[in-house]
TrEMBL record:
Pfam family, one: HTH_1
Keywords linked to the UniProt accession: DNA-binding, Transcription, Transcription regulation
Gene3D superfamilies assigned to the protein according to its UniProt record, in alphabetical order: Periplasmic binding protein-like II, Winged helix-like DNA-binding domain superfamily/Winged helix DNA-binding domain
UniProt-recorded name of the protein: LysR family transcriptional regulator
């Protein structure tokens, strides 16, 4: 008979944090542990699992199939643990939270993270607003939002906390030769972008101008769904 393994929740929390933050060094900082301590936890987790959970991918690490399975169960176990902690201690948060989200984040956070929070704290009323980045920052400055999850390049913004740095990349329709992007009749690169003001649009046009690549606005939309549809249709 195989003896069941009892996984350490602290180890699972480090594992999940490292995957979600994209770095176990960042996870160590977030959890207040040393990098070596987190590495030891990961080694312990793999020993308990009996299979590799991580593999080398370039300069970083990626999840194996077993790691993907472990991640899903780890999230469920941690969620149950946190809910049990709240229920047993009798902690009851009350009040209202006005939260602003980019459409990018709203697609992921609204059903998952906010759903978990609502179940754990049923007496907290969440007022979520999905809006463009500039509007969120304006409402935050005006006191119309309590907090906002937004893109920003200003690391000195008062009361702001940088959660992560993400690389920018170009997205376009499938082409026969990826090295030869589609051009319009005048030889300009058609752009699909948000209407101004837009941080990403500004970065994109600056990069094209520096590279000496002619461009033209092919499709402008205030909606992320509209941009995805335009790119899928091959408009830019």
């Amino acid at each position: 008979m195989i003896r069941p393994v009892t996984f350490d929740l602290d180890v699972l929390r480090s594992f999940v944090a490292g995957v979600e933050l994209g770095s176990f060094g960042r996870a160590a900082d977030r959890l207040g542990r040393s990098t070596s301590a987190v590495s030891a936890q990961l080694k312990k987790l793999e020993e308990q699992a009996g299979v590799p959970l991580l593999r080398k991918a370039g300069r970083g690490l990626a999840l194996t199939d077993a790691g993907e399975t472990m991640l899903a169960y780890a999230r469920r176990l941690l969620e149950l643990n946190d809910q049990a902690s709240v229920a047993v201690r009798g902690t009851r948060l009350q009040g209202r939270v006005r939260l602003g989200l980019q459409e990018d984040f709203g697609e992921i956070l609204l059903p998952q993270v906010l759903g978990q929070f609502a179940r754990a704290h049923p007496q907290v009323r969440i007022e979520a607003r999905v809006a463009r980045n500039a509007e969120l920052l304006e409402r935050l400055a005006a006191g119309e939002l309590d907090l906002a999850l937004a893109w920003d390049h200003d690391a000195t913004r008062p009361h702001g906390v940088r959660l992560a740095e993400l690389p920018l990349c170009w997205i376009g329709p499938a082409v026969t030769d990826p090295a030869a992007p589609a051009r319009d009749a005048d030889g300009a690169l058609p752009l699909v972008a948000f209407e101004t003001p837009c941080l990403f649009r500004g970065r994109a046009t600056e990069a094209l101008d520096r590279a000496g690549i002619a461009w033209t606005s092919a499709f402008i939309s205030p909606s992320l769904a509209g941009l995805w549809a335009a790119v899928s249709a091959g408009l830019g």
